[in-house]
Recover the amino acids of this structure.
């Protein structure tokens, strides 16, 4: 039975815990995998400083418990290590009790041999089991069978090890980018975020700039904030800002924008600069996440995100604006168009704000459709109208839920 504490509410110390036999894969698969994960800012546990002994180190047990995902690399001589097997037992416990994700990787071994402890893999396991207690053997066998039955990767199914590792790193990153409850009331937010993450190409180390465009009150800022909330943990330097022109002098305005921007993204209070053009110098080799909201001035873009080459590899930049021509002028080719929700979607949005679910309680259906129509399918108005009916809706839902004795 899984713990009542969900995975989303836990505080994870590491993103990934790798379980492997060092002599088989440390200098090959694991070193290459670490490079892939490090490039995506995935926080991977490293055991090189832990002294190995007969009994598993308590520090390792805590590291397993504190990891969001465990990667288990089954190699030919994996079961020759009781250390690996004891880690595996703990990983299986965390999978069942803490909802930890586990991804098995079969490195030149047959998954069925791991599940059933047969073939050359099984012979090594039999040797390791000699002199061990029945309880130990049962725990090891169960862990091997259960973990090997999970969805994973088999090197034999890939053209190269590099392709497999690239796919694993991408899969890990996608699993770590989890939805935020802060935007759960915005119906359809998941589809927006999924598309935007795909456009940002997290599977590539190239810096990328995209635009979010659409009329006023379509929810562009909410979508941008939800995106930022989901991916910000993968960037040391990140910022979500909206700046407007406040000075008559162009040069003074650009200088002020740069000072404010650098202070926020570098987390340094009141940065002062003497001339424009410092953004490129300060962020040239840094992996950054930048979301510029409500942009209506081409000078702002040219000052803060003039060229994609200003930023380090893996950087992601999002420009939110009502003006499609502004994105074109700045040569932003990848643009996500946000439109007003359909009638059905608007109805669901109103119901979410009013009644806490996407459909109305008995007797409120006509009201919900009329309210959505009155709001002209505008998300902001739908939220305002829905919130006004919230107390009424909750009271009615409560009455409907009373069971007749």
């Amino acid at each position: 039975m899984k713990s009542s504490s969900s995975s989303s509410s836990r505080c994870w110390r590491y993103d990934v815990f790798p379980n492997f036999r060092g002599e088989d894969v440390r200098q090959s698969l694991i070193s290459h995998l670490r490079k892939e994960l490090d490039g995506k800012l995935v926080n991977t546990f490293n055991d090189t400083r832990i002294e190995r002994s007969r009994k598993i180190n308590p520090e390792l047990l805590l590291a397993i418990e504190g990891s969001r995902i465990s990667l288990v690399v089954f190699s030919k001589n994996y079961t020759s290590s009781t250390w690996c097997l004891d880690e595996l037992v703990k990983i299986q416990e965390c999978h069942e009790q803490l909802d930890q994700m586990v991804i098995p990787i079969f490195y030149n071994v047959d998954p069925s041999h791991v599940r059933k402890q047969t073939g050359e893999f099984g012979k090594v396991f039999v040797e390791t089991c000699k002199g061990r207690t029945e309880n130990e053997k049962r725990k090891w066998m169960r862990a091997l069978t259960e973990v090997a039955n999970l969805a994973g990767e088999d090197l034999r199914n890939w053209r190269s090890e590099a392709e497999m590792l690239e796919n694993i790193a991408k899969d890990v990153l996608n699993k770590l980018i989890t939805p935020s409850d802060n935007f759960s009331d915005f119906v359809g937010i998941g589809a927006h975020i999924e598309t935007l993450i795909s456009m940002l190409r997290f599977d590539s180390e190239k810096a990328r700039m995209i635009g979010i465009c659409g009329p006023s009150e379509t929810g562009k800022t909410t979508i941008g904030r939800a995106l930022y909330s989901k991916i910000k943990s993968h960037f040391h330097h990140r910022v979500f800002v909206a700046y407007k022109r406040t000075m008559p002098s162009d040069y003074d305005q650009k200088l002020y924008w740069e000072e404010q921007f650098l202070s926020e993204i570098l987390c340094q209070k009141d940065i002062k600069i003497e001339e424009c053009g410092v953004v490129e110098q300060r962020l040239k080799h840094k992996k950054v996440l930048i979301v510029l909201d409500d942009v209506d001035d081409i000078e702002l873009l040219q000052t803060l995100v003039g060229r994609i080459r200003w930023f380090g590899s893996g950087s992601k930049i999002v420009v939110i604006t009502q003006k499609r021509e502004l994105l074109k002028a700045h040569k932003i080719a990848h643009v996500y168009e946000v439109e007003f929700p359909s009638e059905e979607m608007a109805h669901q949005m109103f119901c979410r704000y009013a009644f806490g679910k996407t459909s109305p309680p008995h007797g409120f259906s006509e009201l919900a459709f009329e309210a959505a129509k009155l709001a002209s399918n505008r998300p902001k108005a739908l939220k305002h109208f829905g919130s006004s009916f919230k107390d009424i809706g909750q009271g009615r839902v409560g009455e409907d839920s009373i069971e007749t004795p």
